[in-house]
Structure formats: C-alpha cells, structure tokens
Automatic annotation (TrEMBL):
InterPro entries: CMP_dCMP_dom, Cytidine_deaminase-like
Protein name: CMP/dCMP-type deaminase domain-containing protein
Annotated ranges, domain CMP/dCMP-type deaminase: 75-175
GO MF, one example: catalytic activity
Pfam families xrefs: dCMP_cyt_deam_1
C-alpha cells in the first residue's frame, strides 16, 4: 500500500508534486507575451519583470483550478505552480482559515493595499500562493533553482514573495494576461468576486 503523498493533487489524471518522482504533464506551450511596460506594479525587484500567458496555458489552467478548490481566500483566491523543464515541482493556494473566525487585522488597522501582511495571521506572506507553492516543492526536496512560477489570481507579487522566490532561484514569474485589470480591486473592469463565473 503506497503511503499517502502530501501534498497530493491530481489534475486531469496526472499527479503532481509527488516526493518520489516528477511527471511531465504537458507539452511546452510558450504563449507568453513581452512584459507590458506601462503597468504600475506596487512592487517589483530591480531587474525583474513579469511575463504573461493566456488563459489556455496549461499551468495557468492548473493554477486556476487549484485556486478554485484549494484557496481559503474568499475575496482574492489565488494559486501558484512551480515548473521546471515542464515538470510541476510544487503547487500552492493562498489563504488560511483565520479570516473565517476572526476579522482581518489589516482591515481593523486600516492598512492600505499591499501593506501590513505580516500584521495579520490570515494575510501573512507564508500563506501567499507563491510561498506555499515553493514550500511544497521544498518539502518534496525538489531543486527550484531555475524554475518558473505561474501565478493565477493576482496581478503582482508582494516583496515578501519576491524575496522567497529569488532565494529559491525562480527564473521567471508568469501571470495571466490582463491580470492588472482582472485582479486589480482598483480597476473598474476587474472580476473580483466573480473570478470563476466570468
Ligand atoms: Zn487579514
Ligand atoms: Zn505575497
């Protein structure tokens, strides 16, 4: 009887992030577009930029599906997939159970968007998609150096997540195209609150 794998996630019959072996899941579909220079990200490290893929990209589809079923963040569900050589090394969704029981401390304290994540257990960067995906890769002893990260559900990455990604050797970060509109609470055409219905 094989022992239970943790984390264990099956996507269209394919198991990813197993501790013993990694399984190629999809042919490489490179549909990324060049960075859009006029997006005012709240934070991006010196010399880094975001790349974009369309909604039919397999890793963005995977991230969206994982966010839908695993995220504990009701307002801004998100998930990230860490990929190297077309193999999924780690996957994680954001959120924690904290907000279900207690008010968000960032709201209580009046934090502005993107600030004070470490002040609230429910918002803590350790519960962000990027950090959780990398934690599963690390827990399974995968070498993330040179891997890429695909993030669905957000339009930028906070400083803490960038720090974690850079330390892990993440090469490129891919977002869903038009994320700066779709997942931006400030944008009039966002899909916040209807991420899985539109
Ligand atoms: Zn919070
Ligand atoms: Zn973050």
């Amino acid at each position: 009887m094989p022992r239970a794998l943790s984390p264990h996630y099956t996507h269209q019959g394919i198991v990813v992030a197993t501790p013993v072996a990694t399984i190629p899941i999809a042919p490489t579909i490179k549909t990324f577009m060049p960075n859009t220079p006029n997006i005012a990200y709240p934070y991006v490290p010196e010399g880094k930029k975001f790349l974009y893929v369309g909604e039919t990209h397999p890793y963005i589809i995977m991230a969206k599906a994982f966010a839908r079923f695993q995220s504990l963040d009701a307002v801004m569900p998100g998930a990230a997939v860490v990929v190297k050589d077309d193999v999924v090394l780690g996957i994680g969704a954001n959120g924690s159970g904290y907000h279900k029981k207690q008010p968000c401390q960032r709201v209580v304290l009046g934090c502005t968007s993107g600030e004070g994540y470490d002040l609230c257990e429910g918002c803590h960067p350790k519960n962000h998609s990027e950090a959780k995906a990398l934690a599963t890769a690390t827990a399974n002893k995968h070498d993330t150096n040179g891997a890429d990260l695909y993030l669905w559900g957000h339009w930028w990455c906070c400083r803490s997540c960038w720090d974690v990604m850079l330390a892990a050797g993440i090469r490129d970060v891919y977002l869903l195209e038009h994320s700066e509109m779709l997942f931006n609470k400030e944008h009039p055409d966002n899909i916040v609150g209807k991420q899985f219905t539109s």
